[in-house]
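Entry:
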Amino acid sequence: MQLYNIIEPTAAQVPIIISSPHSGTYFPDHIKSRIKPELASRPDDADWFIDKLYDFAPSMGVTMITANYCRWVIDLNRDPQQKPLYDDGRVITGLCPLTDFNGLPLYSQNPPDEAEIEQRLENYFLPYHQKVDEMLAETKAKFGKALLFDAHSIRKVVPGIQKDAFPDLILGDNDLTSASASVIAAAFDELKTGDYHIEHNHPFKGGFITRSFGKPENNIHALQLEMAKTNYMDDSETKYDEARANKMRALLQNTFRKLIEALQ
């Protein structure tokens, strides 16, 4: 299994890259055999179908990178030094998670030790980040600017993070620091036109990808869009719902049109 997929634009390229670091659901056999079978068979914390939801993007000139391995192998959106992203009491899953978002243990035997975590960092984490860095550098060299759009989803209710249901959409830019004001406004103002409850930087303000790659002072911008899975999946949050997804896709397409304009 390759680590990631690169989906090239099918229209004239624009300076936007979509990253989907959590849509992968695969495990190497030596890891899967140690995770509880009922969890490994359907890793609930994966961003199910996010790569499918955004598959319109190449026709708009947007390049995509999507991860293939499950975030329970290694979380590509965590600090490699394992510094917590938040300090508000929520469950913080680690670089190589030992529990799910609600604190349920993942491993039936032999959780990874420090040596194995370091090996996973080398084998899975760094290649993805190096590729994103390379893609952003190439995009900036071509256009003079680049935007990394990190696409995520989460169950509507996750008690381990907060007791209340999440908003439908949460735009994160690390408290206005990972992208320019014009890029942030282009995304947020268009997302607000949809029939969804949207918040800005709360309860998610962008993970390690957004925070590490977003350098607007160098014309490299980064945004994270977190969304409740009920926006494009059924009420059980296990199956793709075409009607819900198509409604969300229309809003996302309009948002990317505005972002393309903002970057011109």
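The mean pLDDT is 96.
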